[in-house]
Amino acid sequence: MDAEVDSESSEGQAAPFKVYKRRWLLLAVVCLLNASNGMEWLTFAPVADKTAEYFHTTMNIVNWLSLVFLVISVPMGLLAIWILDTIGLKCAILLCAWLNMIGSIIRIFSTVSFLSLGSLNIIYLLVGQCLCAVAQPLIIFSPTKLAAVWFPEHQRATANMIGSMSNPLGMLIANLLSPVIVKEGKDIPLMLGVYAGPAVFACVLATVGVHNKVPPTPPSVSATHLDAPSFCGGLKMLMRNGPYIILTLCLGGGVAIFTCYSALLEQVLCANGYSDLFAGVTGALFTVSGLIGAFFLGLYVDKTKKFTEACKISFCLAALLGIAFAVVSQLRNQTYVLATISSLFGLFGFAVYPVALELAVECSYPVGEGTTSGLIFITSQLLGVLFMILFQSLTVEKENASLSTCTTDQGGTLDWSTPMLVMAGLWTFIACFFTVAFHTNYKRIYAETSHACSVNKTEDDFAVTGQT
Fold first, then answer.
1. Which of 368, 363, 369 is nearest to 233 (CA)?
2. Tally of CB atoms within 10 A around 115
3. Of the candidates 384, 358, 352, 351, the residue with the CA atom closest to the CA atom of residue 373
4. Which residues pair with 397 in a beta bridge?
5. Using CA atoms, how far apart are residues 413 and 267, in angstroms rounded to an integer?
6. 8 - beta bridge partners?
7. How far apart are CA 328 and CA 179, in angstroms?
8. What is the mean pLDDT of residues 125-139?
9. Cβ pair 94, 207 in contact under 8 A
10. What is the spatial distance between Cα 164 and Cα 156, in angstroms, rounded to a whole number?
11. What are phi and psi of 229, to 5 degrees?
12. CA 462: distance to chain centroid?
């Protein structure tokens, strides 16, 4: 007999739908893997200079330890989509867990004396980062699939939010923890060991705790996937789905802008006299506020099902704050104003991501959840690279840089006023276009409601027949 048959009734769902307590263990595994992978991604970025010194290499090579994730994520993203929607969630989680753990361990080899490659020890780091990068799409796409397959209708948005936002939480931890651990180059081995801990624990937990790709009994009618198309069939359906294409371009563009914002924040602020510490605090406020906003917005849409309204309002408010940041970031001595703007920017802009992923599933049902979220992620990565190239190409040498805190190895002091205005303009265009052009029916909710009505009607007819 199944040892995990302990289940609850799925609210608002007619029998035989059930939800299982083990879904929370699966969500914990996904969160831990997502956070660990985010930590592996940005391990070296906050201490790039000390990493270059320890391994006797250049800053460009150290930067590639992070950039390799962007390069690998696009081709691997397509494979991850196929694995999630064809083989299943269990395979994706276990494959990600082992790749992430092996990658984190290989990184430690670079500091082990009897495995030393001399000046080529950096190769261990590159190989380890590549394995972690291969694992990234598998786990980033998983929250939407997990929420759809294991959670009932009234918990899906919250579960997706918790799983999706654990990756930026891991990135935040890396940005704060790496500088604390690494005071000088000799602390690099300790940092690698600390970061391997969560990866090993997550792998053990996934291997021991993940047994099924789907629950014994589905939590909702949409989770049965009786009418789900094939992988290629799903891609064809999405390419003909106007609302999904609009949402993919707008959400992908928004995520790309946030990626550029996080990557360029220090360079933008130092040009006008703000310290690296303030830039770090501002970035942390952006992420923490986004996590808080995502939590409450997820709870709200779970109760109200107002996915479209929540997304449109958040997009518009984020656009206004993007304009405010573009203007104020070029002024000096505006620390409190910038901190407030960055916090609100994260609160409204960052928080929309998990809700928009749920909206993507609603407007594209019955296409697999891995496919809908995966294509959005791939789009955001491609646009992120294009936007980064665009913004950097628009910079010019800053004429009056007497108060700049930028260091020489950062390329001197650049004027980021034009790129920031272009960034605000892009975000404003995305918000306006999405608000005007995006309209959709909630296909998954409609399917579940129709099934519930059909079941109730059948039961009523049966009762009348019995009385006759």
1. 368
2. 12
3. 358
4. 414
5. 8
6. 19
7. 28
8. 93
9. yes
10. 12
11. -75, 170
12. 48
Question: Over the stretch 98-117, which tens digit does the pLDDT of each residue have?
Answer: 999 999 999 999 998 888 78
Dihedral sign for Cα atoms in the order 95, 101, 105, 106: positive
Backbone angles phi, psi at 414, to 5 degrees: -110, 150
Cα–Cα distance measured from residue 143 to residue 242, given in angstroms and rounded to the nearest whole number: 24
Residue 374 and residue 362 in contact, taking contact as beta carbons nearer than 8 Å = no
Other C-beta atoms lying within 10 Å of the C-beta of residue 457:
10
Three-class secondary structure assignment of the chain: CCCCCCEEECCCCCCCCEEECHHHHHHHHHHHHHHHHHHHHCCCHHHHHHHHHHCCCCHHHHHHHHHHHHHHHHHHHHHHHHHHHHHCHHHHHHHHHHHHHHHHHHHHHCCCHHHCCHHHCHHHHHHHHHHHHHHHHHHHCHHHHHHHHHCCCCCHHHHHHHHHHHHHHHHHHHHHHHHHHCCCHHHHHHHHHHHHHHHHHHHHHHHHHCCCCCCCCCCCHHHHCCCCCCHHHHHHHHHCCHHHHHHHHHHHHHHHHHHHHHHHHHHHHHCCCCCHHHHHHHHHHHHHHHHHHHHHHHHHHHHHCCHHHHHHHHHHHHHHHHHHHHHHCCCCCCHHHHHHHHHHHHHHHHCHHHHHHHHHHHHHCCCCHHHHHHHHHHHHHHHHHHHHHHHHHCCEECCCCCCCCCCHHHCCCEECHHHHHHHHHHHHHHHHHHHHHCCCCCHHHHHHHHHHHHHHHHHHHHHHHHHC
Phi-psi map region of 225: left, alpha, beta (phi>0 left; psi -120 to 50 alpha)? left
Is the distance from CB of 41 to CB of 381 less than 8 angstroms?
no
Is the distance from CB of 131 to CB of 103 less than 8 angstroms? yes
- Residues 247-286 as b/e (b if ≥16 CB within 10 A, e otherwise) read bbbbbbbbbbbbbbbbebbbbbbbbbbbeeebbbbbbbbb
Length of the chain: 468
Residue pLDDT, tens place only, 71-100:
888 888 888 888 888 888 899 999 999 999
The token duo for 118 is 């001399």
- Read off the tokens for 399: 């004429």
Distances (CA, A) of 138 to 96, 105, 126, 172, 371: 6, 19, 19, 20, 12
And the tokens for 425? 């303009």
| pLDDT tens by residue, 4-44 | 444 444 444 444 778 888 889 999 999 999 999 999 988 88
